[in-house]
Amino acid sequence: MADKKDASKRKKSRKGKRVDRTERRFIPERSNAAMLTLAGTIAGGVAIGAGGYGQWVSDPRVAASPWLVAGGAVVLAAVILWGDMEGTGVRVGDAGVALEKQGKPTTRIAWCDMREVVVDNGTVRFVADEGLSFKVSANPLAAAWVVREAEERIPKCLKVEKAEREALPKTAEGDGERLEVEPLQVAGRACRASDRAITFERDARFCPRCGEVYHKDSLPEACLTCDADLSDA
Questions:
Q1: Is 8 a member of any domain?
Q2: pLDDT digits (tens, 9 = 90+) for 55-90
Q3: What is the DSSP letter of 190?
Q4: 92, 156: one domain
C-alpha cells in the first residue's frame, strides 16, 4: 500500500515539474565571404555610377562607359546571387541547432533528428531529412559549441577530424547570449518507442539530452536514441 502511495507521489511530482530549456545564441563574425560581398557591392555601384556619368552626362561621352555599366551590373548580380553580407547566426542548446539568416525564417533541427554532425573543409554540416550547414569562418565559436554539445548528446553521430577540432576556439560557460527555448511543437510527431502519433502537447515527454519525443504511455526507462535516463522526463 505504501509503495502505491509513493509511486503516486512520484508521478504527481514528475507531472508538475518544469524543466527550463535554454540555448546560446552566437552572432556571426565578419568572414572573408562577407568582406568580399561588401567589396563587390561597392565596386559594382561605383562602376555603374561612373559608367552612367560617362554615357549620359559627360561631354564628350566616354567610350568605355557601356562596358563600365555592364561590368558593374554583372558584379552586383553576382553579389545578389552568391554574396553573404550578414553571415549566419547560430543557436545551440537543449532544442538542438537553429540557423538564422536575415530575411529568412529561422531553421531548427533537434539533436535526435541528426544522423550525423560533420565538420569538414571549414563547414559544419548536419545530416538529416532537411540538412543544414554553416561556415566555421563565419561563426567559429558556434562551431565549437556544436562540437561540444554533440559530443555530450549524440557522440556516435559526431564526425570531426582531430585537425578540425584543434582549429576551433576554446569554449567557456560565458559564451554567447543565453536564451530560453520556446516550447516545441510536438503535435503530429510520432513517439520514438511506439510510433504512436502525439495529438496533445500534454501527452509528450522529452529526452533531456537529445530531445527525442515519447508518448507518456510508452516512455521507456532509457532514451532509445541516446541512452539517457528518462526517469525524470
A1: no
A2: 787 778 878 888 877 887 887 777 666 555 556 789
A3: B
A4: yes
